[in-house]
Specification:
The complex is a heterodimer of chains A (114) and B (113). By secondary structure, chain A is mainly beta. In chain A, 0% of the residues lie in helices and 53% in strands. Chain A starts with a strand and ends with a strand. Chain B has no helices and 11 strands. The chains are: A mainly beta (114), B mainly beta (113).
């Protein structure tokens, strides 16, 4: 079974400052890793994913995450945040078998301060 | 872009009543899921469905819960006798393959009074 830890429940950051949202996972098998974003009063949207290959993955809105197998981490970063990035961010993991479900971390609430 | 549609967006029901939450997954997707999110808490897996049967369910998904894909397009979650603690946002998701991640619906907020 897999599990996900997000150490920071809330992260306030000023606009245009960099941000890192931390994610660590545990698993006895190979994994796929995901970041989902939930804007206020909305559903979950896939932000980016790591399946294999390059350990650095990027989203279309400037976020990136790096898979670090030795540290079992998949931290999310953005060099300069905008007000519109205010949302809940969920790290998620699944095993690589086709039937494996996605397990979500507890979430990190990112608040961008003008 | 294709999307997963959930209805209703908000449902209020009395404790002990049956509710059916409806979802229309993306048409060519093969895997279907229900998750729930109690207010302010984490997103919890309920059940996965593939090839017209449940492939996995969580401890939360007890005998009060059932899922159905009655007509090849809808995917429903039924709660037979609702309890106060069933109040949550329920998300439906579908996927062509777990490789691609899930597409989530916008959720149904269930309030049990």
């Amino acid at each position: 079974a897999q599990s996900v830890t997000q150490l920071d429940s809330q992260v306030p950051v000023f606009e245009e400052a960099p941000v890192e949202l931390r994610c660590n996972y545990s698993s006895s098998v190979s994994v796929y890793l995901f970041w989902y974003v939930q804007y206020p009063n909305q559903g979950l949207q896939l932000l980016l994913k790591y399946l294999s290959g390059s350990t650095l993955v990027e989203s279309i809105n400037g976020f990136e995450a790096e898979f670090n197998k030795s540290q079992t981490s998949f931290h999310l970063r953005k060099p300069s945040v905008h007000i519109s990035d205010t949302a809940e961010y969920f790290c998620a993991v699944s095993g690589v078998a086709s039937y494996d479900k996605v397990i979500f971390g507890p979430g990190t609430s990112l608040s961008v301060i003008p | 872009e294709p999307e997963v549609t959930q209805t209703p967006s908000h449902q209020v029901t009395q404790m002990g009543q049956e509710v059916i939450l409806r979802c229309v997954p993306i048409s060519n997707h093969l895997y279907f899921y229900w998750y729930r999110q109690i207010l302010g808490q984490k997103v919890e897996f309920l059940v996965s469905f593939y090839n017209n049967e449940i492939s996995e369910k969580s401890e939360i998904f007890d005998d009060q819960f059932s899922v159905e894909r009655p007509d090849g397009s809808n995917f429903t979650l039924k709660i037979r006798s609702t309890k106060l603690e069933d109040s949550a946002m329920y998300f439906c998701a579908s996927s062509m393959s777990p490789l691609y991640g899930y597409t989530f619906g916008s959720g149904t907020r269930l309030t049990v009074v």
